[in-house]
Specification:
The chain is mainly α and 86 residues long. It has 3 helices and 2 strands. The longest helix is centred in the C-terminal third of the chain and has 14 residues. It is globular.
């Protein structure tokens, strides 16, 4: 319905279900947002308890995210994610 919108599959989806982020992508989301903050700073950005991936190092988390997306036929790119809306 809205092909130009950026719809994130957030870590909150993975917190409520182990495959939540993959489910979000399969339901139409087109953005994932890995936590690349240094581990010692993540506590300052915690919005809710028991957040998934809070203990993972950035490189490990990114590798896991790439593997998750490849399992469902997608690949992670690191290009700018500007909206296509003009």
């Amino acid at each position: 319905m809205l092909p130009k919108v950026l719809m994130p599959a957030t870590t909150a989806l993975s917190t409520i279900h182990p495959d939540g982020r993959k489910m979000g992508i399969l339901a139409g989301a087109n953005v994932v947002m890995p936590n690349l903050s240094p581990q010692e700073n993540r506590k300052y950005y915690s919005l809710y308890d028991n957040k998934r991936c809070m203990g993972d190092e950035a490189a490990e988390g990114l590798a896991l995210l790439k593997a998750e997306m490849e399992e469902i036929g997608y690949r992670v790119v690191s290009a700018r994610g500007d909206s296509l809306v003009e």
